[in-house]
Amino acid sequence: MKANETEAVSRRSFLGAAAAALSAGAMFAPQAFAQSASEIRKGEANHSADNPGPINRRLAEENPNSSLSPFTDRGDVSPFWYSFDLSHRRVQDGGWTRQVTQKELPSSQDIAGVNMRLTAGSYRELHWHTANEWAFMLYGNARVTVLNPDGTIFIGDVSKGDLWYFPAGYPHSIQGLGPDGCEFLLVFDQGTFSEYQTFLISDWLVHTPGEVLAKNLRLSEAALAKLPDDELYIFPGTLPGSVEDDRRAVGGKAVESKIDYTFRMEAMKPTAEDAGGNVKVVDSAVFPESKGIAAALVTVKPGGMRELHWHPNASEWQYYIQGSGRMTVFASSGKARTTDFNANDVGFIPAVAGHYIENTGSEDLVFLETFKSAYYADFSLNQWIRRLPPLIAKEHLHLDQAELKSVPEQSLKIIAK
After folding, report:
1. Contact between residue 121 and residue 142 where contact means Cβ atoms under 8 Å apart
2. Is-cis flag, bond preceding 179, omega within 30?
3. Which residue among 25, 55, 76 closes a domain?
4. Using an 8 Å Cβ cutoff, are 128 and 203 in contact?
5. What is the per-residue pLDDT across 171-183, written as a single tens digit (0 to 9) for each?
6. CA-to-CA distance for 351 and 108, rounded, in angstroms?
């Protein structure tokens, strides 16, 4: 293991304990936790914030806004940060998987996430589950299949930046392709969903009487003896030929799905773009099959920020792909909290809670916003202020006409440095 990898493991191990402690928090807590701006500034000035005792400096440096929060933070807000690097990684011959569910991030009741790796030729075995599945390819190439209720089947290949959507109950498979398999993020619209409690074809056959299998599958006793005697889950396989060969092998056009369950998200034209970055929104308006999950792929340039906004229709589950940033969540009633985020971290914002995401690093900040909804929606603070009659805005904010006109009139999504 390389030195920087060792440091990352050490840091993440400690963060696990920190996250567990944070999970005891509550969204609405007594105002006794509050400190005024003057109190905090005074504390900084007279070294009240100094910590001469033991300290994990790597953790403090990774999370400066938790170690010493902005004076605008106030009250006790439910934890909205976790990391896949804190989660147990289930490693099998052929790949691995890990998850962040409501158990790890209690406030996320609507969405759970899974990070999975398959080596070239290896399978996530044939299975189905109770939740809708949305996926984003982080690395490499994969072949996916999904069966429709009318007996037609979709077979398609995906690469980095592509996504797929499988409705709940639809049987499907995923196989890593060359040259080096794949890694992807899975998002499920159930906070309590567990990747380890899916319906596996091998598990079902093991728990069905042999005489029933023989009658149903029309197999001999010798053939039945070849079936797996335990669940496969992730296992190595043979690299397939072309996707066209697979389609022909199962019956060609006669059994081909009329529905395409994949989408080229990273390659699409940005929904919004300016000097500060861009946003690519994929919901049922552009990808009709994605009826249960809406998403946005966001890129923020160094020094830029995802503007102050909120989402009226669903809570937001984030996955950070690249870079570093910070986010403040405003939880109403004078409560707000700021936390830092890095690659492979998960963020959560309750529905209608105000927030922003600022790029605090030297490279692009790239992250996914996902929602349990058929459509994407947000409200821009800037646009709200500018759409109000000037007298209303002036009497609420105490700004004169010239100052109000300096507020951007349109929803910018991303604000440049």
Report:
1. no
2. yes
3. 76
4. no
5. 999 999 999 999 9
6. 10
Q: What is the pLDDT at residue 44?
A: 52
Among 25-39, 41-55, 65-79, 288-302, the range of highest mean pLDDT? 288-302
β-sheet bridge partners, residue 74: 336
The neighbour count for residue 21, using CB atoms within 10 Å, is: 10
* Helix, strand or coil, per DSSP, at residue 184: strand
Is residue 65 within a helix (H) or strand (E), and if so which, with residue range?
A: helix 64-67
Displacement of CA 138 from its chain's centroid (Å):
11
> For position 67, what pLDDT does the model report?
84
Reading the block at residue 244, the tokens are 């066209």
Whether residue 110 sits in one domain with residue 93 = yes
Looking at the domain assignment, is residue 226 inside a domain?
yes
337 and 229 in a single domain? The answer is: no
Q: Which two tokens stand for residue 209?
A: 């009487």
Most confident of 40-54, 63-77, 206-220: 206-220
Q: Are 397 and 354 in contact (CB under 8 A)?
A: no
Residue 61 pLDDT class (50, 70, 90 cuts): confident
Residue 81 within a domain: no
Among the candidates 263, 282, 299, a domain finishes at 263
Q: Which domain holds residue 138?
A: 88-263
CATH number for position 248: 2.60.120.10
pLDDT digits (tens, 9 = 90+) for 357-366: 999 999 999 9
Q: Which residues are catalytic?
A: 369
Q: Residue 27 pLDDT > 80, yes or no?
A: no
Q: Would you call 97 helix, strand, or coil by DSSP?
A: strand
Answer yes or no: do 107 and 244 share one domain. yes
Distances (CA, A) of 10 to 115, 258, 407: 20, 49, 45
The dihedral built from the CA positions of residue 240, 244, 250 and 256, taken in this order, carries a sign that is: positive
- pTM here? 0.87
